Predict the 3D structure of the following.
Amino acid sequence: MKKEYIIAGNWKMHKTVKETIDFVEALEEKVAALPQNEAVEILVCPPFTSLCAITGKSQKIKTGAQNLHFEEKGAFTGEISPLMLAGLVDYVLIGHSERRHIFKETDEDINKKIKTALNHGFHPVLCVGETLDEREAGKTLSTIQTQLDQGLEGLGVEAIKKVVIAYEPVWAIGTGRTASPQQAREAHAFIREILKKKIDSPAAAEDTRILYGGSVKPSNSYDLLSQQDVNGALIGGASLKIDDFFAIIQDAYKLVDE
């Protein structure tokens, strides 16, 4: 079966509105030179302030939000409602390690957000991954299992099929350290097996896209993307540099044509 990829940029708290527009326009020009291929999806997740400015600006580049609140409205100062994202994004990142560890989001919070995203027609990107302490203690797989079980709690089979999973080992995010292709392959294969049991359909679970995130850059992207159960990348720092981001996109194009 031919693989499909998502190459996603998580810009975190970077880029002004003007910088975002300039970046997307320049990336659109580069992507336009590539052959038409629906097997590669390109996604950028800028700060909330930039979403209106780039929505609909490109036919080839989709947009995602970095977060959302699980309530539609209310006294939640500083939060963003799913109603405010309607018509602006296709995807929503949920459960990124920075949300878990800096902002203390729990698996219960993340589960509520996933349900809200699905109810409003967005594709959630559920981020899972272990800390360095958990990896060194041999708890990588049990941590992933818990985060998936609790994150997907209460979802039916059809809902789970709409969720994208991003495996992001916390020790590799923004550190310059990257999981080896073998480490990524093992974690992704484990996630795929969990999904097969939850969806109760090996074929449907094979269609679920599982992204790798954690210091992805042009020097390692081809090797990571070529692994069997890796269906793309969620990229931080390298997605802020247009040449680096485009180089990773090119790697995905090469792989779908092989």
